Predict the structure.
Amino acid sequence: MATVIKFKVNGRWVEVEVPCHWTLLRLLREKLGLTGTKEGCGIGECGACTVLLDGMPVNSCLILAPKVEGREVQTVEGLGSRGDLHPLQKSFIDHGAVQCGFCTPGMLMSSRALIDKNPNPTREEIKDAISGHLCRCTGYNQIIEAVEAIEE
Ligand code: FES
Ligand code: FES
């Protein structure tokens, strides 16, 4: 069974038909071509699929697509563009925090949610904000430093 949903993604309203059992992650990647959001575990454990739903970080692999009807989703594609990077993206580059393509989009989105609410987070608050992201290359320090150094 499929349904038609309308929601805002990266500031633009879209209306799409989607099978009711699809996840938000699958909708973003397979219908809307927003492949910046990655699938790691697919079961809510790694944080790779993190997007913002009404400003809050969520694991898009755990959200059924019809649940976003009328709501606002932000993905890494809406953060900045090649010629106009978000300050977080610049800081990640400057601090060597861009490690692998699977983790970085989700890390950026959780960091974005944090600094939107709290522009000067402490180290502990940054650690807490990215605690749902599993990085197997153990490169958390550079990410924490990149978020600490952010200048909006
Ligand atoms: S893919 Fe969603 S939490 Fe791992
Ligand atoms: S950044 Fe992806 S495993 Fe470390």
